[in-house]
């Protein structure tokens, strides 16, 4: 490089610069630059106080509206089918609800192993026979002492007919009873079964079908475990010999349904079930009903404008129902209502089936809401997570919500709401707050 | 001789630094900022300057072939060149008693060029407007007549890039150049609003993507009336500029025109430069909403570059400069101006084959109403290779 004069070439400046070992400094500068660039790749964010004054965009306002988005509503039932409920209801509620319990033992072993030995012996004489029922003592209502009556309900008549089954609960078929105090001392009740009756059935290889009811005059509501994976099932319990040194045998409920041997649900439904003698009254006009006995569900089909479901972000969606009083049993006790999601396609026209196929909306973060049957007024169900997901749902899936009582199958409490045939301000409606999608990328 | 060995046989230590910087400079940009004076409208204009020009605050930009200003400067290019440049910025925004700090990073320039006989051809991409920020602030929403608290967030990541193909050639003391200009890029914006009551309200999370395309042309001239003095002028003619989503044109405006003038005095290895430009940012009005209003600005800068010290017998160039300019987008009715003091160094890593240019910018941006100010430190690092 030819030496040329520089404006910064005065001696003082040169002496300072020359004192630096330029080569090392240059490399140091490179390293420093690399380090600075590397540190730049870590994010650093503090505050937010400069917004909204300096933030480049103004948020668009939300829009509120109340829509008549419920296009169809109806009440469907009964739920559950016969004994397809882990717990069932044995009740005698005066003029309102009355149910009997049927427990089937269609196959009973006829032999036993004395003292856990290896040689089986036929059962010929038995002792201490009881029908053991496991009771939910917290949910049961036993304000007064009561009597449980036991009946032999085995018959060659049609056992699928509720009328036939009810007719078998008559005095000449009564085989035992149990007096129970108002305060249940244990979680199970042992109803004595005549030893001779049971022994004769076992020896003859005949099935045993027992019916239980609460003697008239009481106002009792028992929650009986129908089937569980553990030890709560109803069972026949007896000593297989009069010698008390033998351990009692327990027979679990079982049944045979002609033509339904491979249908597990059918078998389960007919093994332990509640027989309805007197159920909830018919649903009044202009009304949809949740709960009751047998259980009812509300089916609501929605039609929401696509500008909301497809072109907006829904931030609030509330189903508004107007409750009207229900004066059935337990009218003053609150009952939970859980929204379920319709998951069936539009091809399913059987609404009972569609309601049965519904999925618990708790999976979508929708919780149950409790109401008191005898109350009235506007009720709100928060279904925002459901409505938000409808836009992503297959268009062939019906946009529907099923309202189901948390006490379905074990409680007769019932809630009434005005339906779509009611005056406009009482009908089911949907209150929506949404933010229409707009072009916000443009500053 | 080092000149004959090529860039891949440089001494290991220097090559290691180059490789590390290359990796760092070519990683995708990440940005994180918030409501800021420089983030209004379609964003902040880095200026299309190379690290070398940034060292002089842009004063030498009209004479720098790597900067997207004067296509006539491409005639000064050697046989070939490849350059990539990264520029992180540390920013502090003050509004009243509150202040916020943020960090963003840009890959602000990528260029490649070659000489064909007497014509220098340069392909370059520079950031025309950088719109990268994240903002989060408390807000409210009116729902059913009631005021509900919200947390509002807005995140934008994107930029408009000016792509240029420049051709410049020299005839005696005059250099002339032309450039075809294309503006491209996209903005990815995410809008979020969340409610403290998550059981009752669902959150809002929307995203939107915009694309841009525009064209323009630029011409430039350099003239050296005497040996130590050069003058330059350039003009960018803005063509149509469209904002697109998918294949749909959302809005249209024009690429901002620009007129620049520069004077360069070189004596004894030292260069003194002065640059003035006027940018017609108002041509972009209509591309965004009414809230995104742009103004025409006049910018000027002065700077100096001088050699001091050597590395492997090649001079190390030191730079300094001062600039004053206006930012294009208004905040309400108020304009934003920027003053900057810059410094830089050019280190010949491998003689003429590879150069590392570093520039440090100290910028102060202020609102015309005086309500807010923004201070920023910027570091620009560029690796330029001349194979």
Number of helices of chain A: 8
- Count of extended strands of chain A: 25
From the spread of the alpha carbons, the general shape of chain B counts as elongated
The pLDDT mean of chain B sits at: 86
Main pleated-sheet profile of chain B? 14 strands, antiparallel, barrel
Termini gap of chain A: 52 Å
Structural class of chain B: mainly beta
Number of helices of chain B: 3
Query: What level of helicity do the residues of chain B show?
Result: under 10%
Q: What sequence of helices (H) and strands (E) makes up the elements of chain B?
A: HHEHEEEEEEEEEEEEEEEE
What is the count of β-strands of chain B? Answer: 17
What percent strand of chain A? Answer: 25-35%
The Rg value of chain A, from CA coordinates, equals 36 Å
Q: How much is the radius of gyration of chain B in Å?
A: 22 Å
Strand arrangement within the widest β-sheet of chain B reads: 2-3-4-6-7-8-9-11-12-13-14-15-16-17
What fraction of residues of chain B sit in β-strands? over 45%
Largest two-chain interface? A-B, 68 and 99 residues
First-to-last CA distance of chain B: 15 Å
| Main structural class of chain A | alpha+beta
Low-confidence stretches of chain B: 1-34
The oligomeric status of these chains comes to heterodimer
